[in-house]
# Entry
Amino acid sequence: MKRLYRSRQNKMIGGVCAGLGEYLDLDPTLIRLVMIIAVFGAGAGVLAYLVAWVLIPNEPY
# Structure
């Protein structure tokens, strides 16, 4: 079963975008670009990232 985790290896800030990329089988750079657009477009991207950072657990070792 596939689980959503924050990445430990491919992280820039909190590993949220890399974890979402691994979970959705997408390039983490694409997720990061969408997040940047959300930050500057609607302003809700920062809040969404912070909530995801708190709710998504770290990848197990």
Remarks:
- The chain is about 55% helix and 0% strand.
- The chain has a mean pLDDT of 89.
